[in-house]
Amino acid sequence: MRTRLTELLGIEFPLVAFSHCRDVVAAVTNAGGFGVLGAVAYSPARLDRELSWIDEQVRGRPYGVDVLLPGRVDAAAADPAARLGEAIPDAHRDFVAHLMRKYDVGRPDIWPPDGGAWAPPTTAAGRAADEAGRRVTAAGAMGLVDVALKHPVRLIASALGPPPPEMVDRARSAGVPVAALVGTVEHARRQVAAGADVVVAQGTEAGGHTGEISTMVLVPQVVDAVAPVPVLAAGGVASGRQMAAAIALGAEGVWCGSVWLTTEEAETPPVVRDKLLAATSLDTVRSRCRTGKPARQLKSAWTEEWDEATESPGPLPMPLQMLLAEPALARVVRAAEAGGEGARDLANYFVGQVVGQMNQVRPAREVVYAIVSEYVEAVARLSRLSG
Amino acid sequence: MRTRLTELLGIEFPLVAFSHCRDVVAAVTNAGGFGVLGAVAYSPARLDRELSWIDEQVRGRPYGVDVLLPGRVDAAAADPAARLGEAIPDAHRDFVAHLMRKYDVGRPDIWPPDGGAWAPPTTAAGRAADEAGRRVTAAGAMGLVDVALKHPVRLIASALGPPPPEMVDRARSAGVPVAALVGTVEHARRQVAAGADVVVAQGTEAGGHTGEISTMVLVPQVVDAVAPVPVLAAGGVASGRQMAAAIALGAEGVWCGSVWLTTEEAETPPVVRDKLLAATSLDTVRSRCRTGKPARQLKSAWTEEWDEATESPGPLPMPLQMLLAEPALARVVRAAEAGGEGARDLANYFVGQVVGQMNQVRPAREVVYAIVSEYVEAVARLSRLSG
């Protein structure tokens, strides 16, 4: 199959796989798709190691890297002297500590034994939290991009806000195209004006940070608005029929994230994986309660408490909510894996409405082949029906 | 183009047009599609007249009728002796009266001059309201179906709950298939068990009563769950590319509603039509504030006041919210047409996210032809890209 995307990325089949797990990235790339590693969870040094591992696995086959660049973050994140942990209000720390007690989870190791739900700034955990929070600023993301560009990446993708001019310049100098994720036509226009070479139009049904407009409605409008810039469709795509639908809408390829979470290669904790396998398409919610920006995820006691409990203080802006939530949710998963029922109720993860289709654990390679083969069938059926 | 749907309905192209306006139904049917008249707004006698008019226009070409059958309604609606207007609490009447004052709309004619926002039961308006409210019960809907079956209709469609056995029996005896609208896989299975011959899988992006799952995600799951029952895709379909996408997902045709609202034939009041033409895909909301059940509609001061104002008493169950809202919103439209700015802010209508694509007024026939021609192009592009 040939589209401008397959030419640009040097691939056989325009199936892009977003994952935080290097094994998934390598497996999809080696199966003829295009893996993109979500880099936001990594320090620059760690990212360098992950990409070196991928380089060894894929031996020249193309892959990419994704960074998170919100248009707006909490002011503390922009101030290199600020201690981000200290910007988290007491009410929020207390609420998380209350949840940990209520659901019998125990306290994350990085919290001070006598105090609230945070990592004290003078500890290693506090410094790591500061650094993690700053990775969603332009300066932090550039650190990751610089590492990526030392590797043979074929795409830099930027989620949330427009890529800063510096990022576009450095990627261009390295001959690497820049992709930008968007949820509205206006954002698509803004991203192209900022220099995006590829637009990923992502519908509300997608997992993770996402807008309100469905893929079916969004993709054709974005295709028309940014032509001739090529568009990848994201959100609701986890099968060959859905991929054929996305291409019918005018996209030149697809960007899938959720479907890899239940592959053999994914590092999804078993307790979360089992919840994903059991969930229906009604079991997700778009909530600010993990990162501070609306992100679709599995409904759980965590989303219910933050979004509905009367004592909830409401989510903090990005990146503070991430800094508050992630250590707590990591502890939740550990407690759930150890058999804690309350912890199991709290555990969740970013996933799209396609979770209702994810009913078995398969190698990522098999998922790629299944999508290719169902895609071919869907196109053949469409041609046949249309005489 | 041939699918089981085109065979079943006796049409050339599996494009079903839902409209409350007989002119749209006739125009689409005469252009080779299949018009379906939404009957819930009509008394049986009025429906009979509308269908006779359609019969004259379409001269044997096929069309259908749609009724609304919620699984659950307010208890008063099931009691033939109850006065529905009296079941509306004072707080709700007062809130609507407050909105009418706040936005300078004036009082609907059917409200008592000295009292709250309702039609007194002893007046003709009160009796008409009682009857309108009962049209969404099984008995009320059967009255409409009986009228429809005296005409050469080729489809009875039922929205919200499963069609009652009586309806399926009478339609079957008349040789007329029954279609049922669904928003989840579970509902689809229930509707087929209740005797539906066709399932309309409707995504959250659709206008009017709608669920939470997007078309992209819902349609393939419903197709697999009810096979070999044919599925129409609804929600997010207003162009040929979107129709091709829907067929790629496994549907055998599409059901479109919103796109007809800005056709020349539609009776959409000009003030509402202009708001639809100006709206983007971000300007809709799924709210209970017009009917008591979640229905996607244009955001307006009406939806904001009901859903966000601290003094809002929250929506009533169906059909009480309809009985309260519809006379008020009819008055709002009259005031808006007369130039009232507050009324213009309140005015809205049921519409899907495709409203962002609806940017010009065209004859319904031209919309059908544009969809057919873009559909053919989209399928050709898909075949070409796939080699």
Automatic annotation (TrEMBL), chains A, B:
CDD domains: NPD_like
Keyword annotations: Flavoprotein, FMN, Monooxygenase, Oxidoreductase
Pfam families xref list: NMO
Gene Ontology MF terms in the entry: monooxygenase activity
UniProt-listed InterPro entries: Aldolase_TIM, NMO
SUPFAM superfamilies attached to this UniProt entry: Inosine monophosphate dehydrogenase (IMPDH)
Protein name, UniProt field: Monooxygenase
Species this protein is from: Microbispora corallina
